[in-house]
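dumping this here before i forget
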Amino acid sequence: MKVTDRRNKKIDEAVSNNEWDEVLRLMSQSLQNAERRDRYHSKQSLDKNISKGSRKTELHEIITNVVSSETQLLEKELIMHCDLALQQLSSVDRTIVLGRTAEKPLSFVELGRQVGLTDKTVKSHYLKALEQLKEYLSDYYYS
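structure:
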């Protein structure tokens, strides 16, 4: 766990310094280490094709519960872009969107009381804000 945490910190530093070759090297490091250990112990590679039913697949595709450094990096980037997109909204619209998308979402009536608008106006603000977010995040949004 400590090694992974250190590697993730180094990846974050490399990203902030735009050192993409270093990011790629660090992201592939754990796989290279595993392959080296496997060769030493005469184990099979994760790239080995395995028949699962009538479909052939690579071993590493079967192991789905391991979150890769690449996935973590992409998730961090998406969160960063979502935060930037939210900052583009007015404070009222941001309050409405966050209130509606919270773990326990607030109703339009409750949000209207918070921001001093009617529930229909809050709903209108919410729908317009979602469109603005959709436009801002168009590179990440798939419909």
